[in-house]
Design goal:
CATH superfamily: P-loop containing nucleotide triphosphate hydrolases
Strand content: 25-35%
Structural class: alpha/beta
CATH class: Alpha Beta
Distance between the termini: 49 Å
CATH topology: Rossmann fold
Strand order of the largest sheet: 5-2-6-7-1-8
Largest sheet: 6 strands, parallel
């Protein structure tokens, strides 16, 4: 049976990582091995670990790009989940790698990430990965103003000239509904 691609998208603070960890548990029960990768830019965790805001953690391999992945984990001795945290940080090599894994192995792939950036534009290669997906989990957060469903990432430093990638957590970002989201100016 061929593997499948699942993408988990939504604004900062919507629970993407926690949701991914829940999927991991379902895969483990079915005998899968889990391999989690995250981009070296994401330095919110001190060690080779991926943590959720809810306090859950999972070991992760830190990469600059997919060429650093030890290809021996792709052998067919067992079924595996190859997961990527914050897929928007990766370049087109992630799309190529995922496509190769899905065509040449029976391993499944999970990618979390922001589908849109703080400006409201498609973010990196996430839209392409979503188009390739067998399933998309589009999570919503809670608007910090009205407590309604939030689909946007609001950056506190909201200048149009600020860098696209700014690593941070609750001190730098919040969730907003479309009504309360303020585009950068």
């Amino acid at each position: 049976m061929p593997g499948e691609l699942s993408t988990i998208v939504g604004p900062m603070g919507s629970g993407k990582t926690k949701f991914m960890f829940g999927l991991f548990e379902n895969y483990r029960k079915r005998g899968y091995e889990i391999h989690l990768f995250k981009h070296h830019r994401d330095d919110r965790d001190k060690d080779a670990v991926c943590s959720s805001r809810a306090g859950h953690a999972h070991p992760a391999t830190i990469l600059r790009d997919t060429s650093e992945i030890d290809r021996s984990i792709l052998d067919d001795t067992c079924r595996r989940v190859i997961a990527f945290e914050e897929g928007e940080f990766f370049a087109s090599d992630l799309v190529d790698f995922v496509r190769w894994v899905l065509r040449k192995t029976d391993h499944s792939v999970i990618v979390t990430g922001l589908n849109i950036d703080f400006k409201g534009d498609p973010f990196g290669y996430m839209p392409q990965l979503m188009a390739m997906s067998d399933e998309i989990f589009h999570l919503k957060g809670e608007c910090d103003i009205c407590h309604g469903f939030a689909t946007r990432t609001q950056r506190f430093d909201n200048s149009i000239d600020s860098p696209l990638i700014l690593i941070g957590g609750d001190e730098a970002y919040t969730c907003r509904c479309p009504e309360h989201y303020v585009p950068p100016s």
